[in-house]
Amino acid sequence: MNNSVSLRLEQLGFDQQKALALLENNAWLDAKGLSLGQERAENAFEFFSTPHCHDQHLFMLGYPAIDSKALIRELLLSHPLSSDNVYDAVYCEDVKNPRKPVCLTLPKGQGLKFSRLVNSWLKQSATLLAAQEKEFKQLQQQKLSANPEHIEETFVTSAFSDHINPLLTVFKRLPEVKSYLSDLAKQLDYGYQLSHPVVCNNFVSHQGDDQFPIVFCDNPDSVKLFGDIAIVTEQGTTVANHHLLQPGLLHQANGGVLILPAERLLENPELWFELKSSLFDHQIKWRCSSQWLDPESMDLRLQIILVGDSMAYKGFLHLDPDIIQLFPLIAEVNHQYSLDTESAYISYAGYLQNIARRSNCNDLTNAGLVCLMNFSSMLIEHQHKVSLDSAIFKSLIQQAQTFVDVKDQFIDEPHIEQAIAAYNLRKNRIAQYSFEAIKEKQLLLVTQGQAIGQINALSVLDTDLDCFGEPSRVTAAVYLGNGEIDDVERKVDLAGNIHAKGVAILTSYLHQKFALEDDIPLAANLVFEQSYQGIDGDSAAMASLLCLLSAFADKPLEQGIAVTGAMDQFGNILAIGGVNEKISGFYKACEVNGFGKRQGVIIPMSNINNLNLTPKIRQAVKDKRFYIYPVSHIEQAIELVFSLTAGQVNEDSTYPQDSLYGAIKQRIDKLNSHDHQPESLWDRLKFWTN
Length: 690
What we know:
Blueprint: H1 16-24, H2 39-48, E1 58-61, H3 68-78, E2 87-92, E3 102-107, H4 111-146, H5 159-162, H6 165-170, H7 175-189, E4 200-204, E5 214-216, H8 222-226, E6 228-229, E7 232-234, E8 237-239, E9 245-246, H9 249-253, E10 257-261, H10 262-267, H11 269-281, E11 283-284, E12 298-299, E13 303-308, H12 310-319, H13 323-326, E14 329-332, E15 336-338, H14 342-358, E16 363-364, H15 366-380, E17 385-387, H16 390-401, E18 410-411, H17 413-425, H18 429-439, E19 450-452, E20 454-462, E21 467-480, E22 485-487, H19 488-491, H20 497-514, E23 522-528, H21 541-553, E24 556-558, E25 561-563, E26 566-567, E27 573-574, H22 579-593, E28 600-604, H23 615-622, E29 627-631, H24 634-642, H25 660-672, H26 681-689
Parallel strand pairs: 1-13, 1-14, 5-10, 10-13, 16-18, 22-23, 25-28, 28-29
Antiparallel strand pairs: 2-3, 2-4, 6-9, 7-8, 11-12, 15-17, 19-24, 20-21, 21-23, 26-27
């Protein structure tokens, strides 16, 4: 491989020309739902919807920027549960014990019918009862007038039982309902009185053609889940009856699915254990029952979906290991989609078009779709993968709609570009301040010329809103010692463990190369200049090693070439994250300082697929004003930044004198030489300045 050759233009990002050609050749886009690319979730919902898994609840590991509610609803509708367990619930008074209302379940759509028929029967029977009682009293009055010594008879009626048969016939397939009505008729005939004029409370009602209920709750508490009993005070007396029962979400979702946020339940363990008890007992018990009202429990036949992240699931494992038994189904939501086939491009375009339609926006043109696909690829940092973050796309499409002229029927590429530019502008305050500091020379960063023991490393700064690349000047100073590399950031507790690991690896590489026979009589300080916050990660390992090699060999480095890449002990360059932000950060620094003859970045070869650079940087590469150099080994990077070969060891265990390693070896041998004379003060000063 010729290491001086920069990447080609088509290697710098998502292939927009290919995507546009595929869309132009496709006559129609099928709208794809939010379940696109969610094979794991699809698999979980297939089991979740089967009758054999009706006792298995599901834990969905969601993703912040994906509309979990819409995704769950879509998956439930594409994998519907059986509606056999959906019932209407009616709470009826027990006239013998009004404190304990009876819960009756009827087929969906039958609750209101039951109430109307019962009220009609009671009204008709009460009218008949009143007539019979009046007739009885008149007859008793006549007998008393004819015979003053006549003993008054007791009024006995069967008005309610006489008219109950038609009602029993209607509900003949419901034994519990028939039993309640028969008992009610007998009790009323025996003289028991209703405490409330309306005997039935239509607690939960469904339409006859309703499917299974799907209920979401974002902030559950005990009352919301388990219902409540209202207490009314009239003239200083507490009144409670079955009409004061208020259903909770468990009652409303019974027979269907209830979706709850896992984090809220973790914050309220008591509520979780109440819910767990109900799930194990298959009963919805009244947590707020009192001396005035203690209603009958309702059978629980619903399934639960908990939505949270992996940390929430881990929290449940610590809180209650029974989560494994109750929630054996796990659905991991995928946030990216692979464009590994031509049909995948078409499907993803249909997914974006569907989001636009869901958002009540105009359809996107093919160019608009490709522009959004390119932005999506940038979010994932992969040329052949795109994001499924539906919330971001919905927001961008809605913002793009505001730039569309009233006469236009479509959202086009310029509208999407304007929305993306506005999106980036709103969150780039800190990045702007950073590059203003470079422009004003408050942050010292040299992007032209050569220097010994100095190099521009690439780093990424994460803020609450933004993530941007900022070059960091790494310097190395050598002095007599025992081969140790002192990491100043680590010494002052400004570096994390991964950064320390990277420094340890490059130290190991140096010792392998130059300390096999003799000790390295040099030591070095490695510093990230003007770094006042903590740093971590091993992506500066290659830059740090090049900087140290420069100081050891007393050879200058190209300051116009910035470096990023992790490495192993054998010099192999490993992939890093944030490659696009890092390249963009150094490009902006070069813009601020002015472009020179040769400026660019060295990146790991394994990060090529992660490239998705802005059009401005791509044009600069095309015009040969900026270069992207991929390397797979440290020795390839050495040739780029030193204009020297690294040097291959000879048979006599030496390196060529005109190589970088040869220069370092000569310096070490000179210092280790037995006839080496002590250096003068002037020599030492010269050594330190190098």
